[in-house]
Structures are given as structure tokens and as C-alpha cells.
Amino acid sequence: MDGYYGSYVLVAALLVIGVAIVAGALLANRLLRPSRPTPDKLTTYECGVDPVGDGWAQSQVRYYVFTYLYVVFAVDAVFLFPWATIFDAPGYGMTTLVEMFVFLGFIALGIVYAWRKRVLTWT
Q1: Where is it localised (predicted)?
Q2: Of the four, 4, 47, 98, 120, which is 20 to 30 A from 34 by CA?
Q3: Other CB atoms closer than 10 Å to residue 83's CB: what's the count?
Q4: Is the model's pTM score more than 0.70?
């Protein structure tokens, strides 16, 4: 398996083997499991409460706002880790420091905006 396409053949072979193992496990599960469906087993189950009414429920917009703020902080953390690793590299010190403070300034500006609009209050 030398040559240019040898690596691709190896990856394709491993992919086929992986798919075969997963398909074989799912097939064995289907063949070996007992199947006795009853009306009680086929009902919707959620947290031990019998389903009543339709499934439509409104949720408040503040849940989405907190989720959005979490995503902002997660993205912030994703950018901070690579910055912390390259900050020590020679030649990148002051440039990366300024860039990161500009980035953190934009994040802080967004947090101040959300705070001033009273988005962060839970009432």
C-alpha cells in the first residue's frame, strides 16, 4: 500500500470495517432482543408523568437569551485557549496581546449592552 493512493485505500478500508462492525452490532441487537409491544409500552413517557393534552408549550425568551450568552462565553473561551498557547511564542507577544484585548473589548461591550437593556435580570 505504498504510493499516493495507499493512504486513501487504508482509510477507506478502515471506514468499511467500522461501518460493518456497527451494522453487525445493530443487527445482532435486533435479532437477539425480545419484541413484545403492548399498548403501555407504546405510550409516550416523560419523567413518569402520563401525557395529557397536546405537546405545544411556550417558553420565555429569557431562556434563549441565557443560551445565547452561554454561546458567546463558550466562543470566547475557544478563542482564549489558542491565544494563550501562542502568546508565549517569540514575535507574537504584543500583537496577540492587542488583538485579544480588542476581542475582549467587543465581548465586554456586548455584556454591557445586555446589562443596560436588563437582559441579565431574572424576574
Answers
A1: Cell membrane; Membrane
A2: 47
A3: 16
A4: no
